[in-house]
Amino acid sequence: MLRRAMFRCGQLCSVEFDLRAEPLYFTLSSSPQVLHHAHQQLFGDCGKLFSLHVQCANRIEKAQTHAEIKHKLSSTLSRDCDVFEASSFIPDVANSVVKGFFIRDKSTTTLSEDLLNTLRQSERVCVFSYKREGQYCWQELWSPVNQVEGSERQYITPAAAAEHHPSTLNIRNSDVFYSMDEAYKVLQECTDIIPESKEVLKLVDEQLETSRGDGFPVIVIEGLDATGKTTLTEALRESLNATLLKSPPQCLAPFRQRFDSEPPLIRRAFYALGNYITAAHIGKESLRAPVIVDRYWHSTAAYAIATAVGGRVENLPRPGSELYQWPEDLLQPNLVLLLTVNPEERLRRLRDRGQDKTVEEAELEINQFFRLKVEEAYKRIQNPACIIVDASPSPQEVLQQVQHLIRNKCHL
Ligand SMILES: Nc1ncnc2c1ncn2[C@@H]1O[C@H](COP(=O)(O)OP(=O)(O)O)[C@@H](O)[C@H]1O
Ligand SMILES: Nc1ccn([C@H]2C[C@H](O)[C@@H](COP(=O)(O)OP(=O)(O)O)O2)c(=O)n1
Fold it and tell me: Is residue 128 helix, strand or coil?
């Protein structure tokens, strides 16, 4: 029964309805509880209030349903409807999060109810409505005709903020992958709906075992778009007579746009496998020359964590969290340099370069919360941690600065 799966005892629900503020937390009880003033904002007299939560057993179907509903809600509901991200979860219990949405409909139409009814009938979604009497508010399973039989009132009970933001509970092997096998399994589960998955897995299978013998140094250059990675890596290739590699590797270029359009679970598994293919190339190339890599695991983990964690930088997993630990089965570089420039200079360089931006890069520009989270996540990744390089000076000066660092750290 959907309901029982929804709210187990001790489960909290969090609603992100103000990026600048903490999410709103509440739990449910069978006895009336007075609404906290902060809850008035969401549960106050503001038209029809619903929540819907994705309930699919299969994780691929769950990820695609969530993405499909998010698109439907944003493209179908009127401007009188506010849609907020919601999560029901058990505090500090990994993988306990059930993602959903809160819809506050101030319109006079039945559009939101028609849409919710269609979703409800798909059996992949659980829909609740909210009623209010004075200081009390309760939730009930919703149906357009009448209340669902046996649906007792569950009163909204204000709860204190969870110690760890709910979005950090599901990151392991859903947003960030800590072994090749875990990422490989996700794409195996997609082969019937995304045929390209087979070709990507074939390319992974073809990679020789990653041997990291006593080869030449491996140096990774990281940073946001337009910080100067391409310019610097090409200059280092020449000055060090090195091999230049990228992640994702060139062999995955034909599939990238396809996987960029998939939900995070699938998209991040794709980029994780790209790192393992690049690792095999590094293992081979480093036997004969120094290797320079343009993006690698730091990018994959930092963008995935920053995307998964809602709201402000403070919601990121704490420094030292195991979520920042390098995967044990992924080849480690000798040195990781994080290029940083101030936002204005980066935007100037982006404009001067004139290339199309990826959706995520566009997000970096409009959503400073996202950019700050990417930058902070980069810095928290350990084993190896990155060394921060001020990439504001001229290309020549940045190159000299980096060559000095490489000489000191890698004796090159
Ligand atoms: N140190 C620098 N100073 C000024 N402009 C730079 C510098 N490094 C790169 N650029 C310019 O900035 C733009 C983005 O550089 P690029 O190397 O493509 O960055 P990324 O690979 O990080 O996206 C390009 O037009 C490049 O010529
Ligand atoms: N190893 C990598 C490389 C890129 N990504 C993701 C992270 C961002 O969404 C994009 C950035 O890649 P993109 O090629 O656009 O970046 P640059 O143009 O090289 O600066 O790809 C990743 O997850 N893992």
Answer: strand
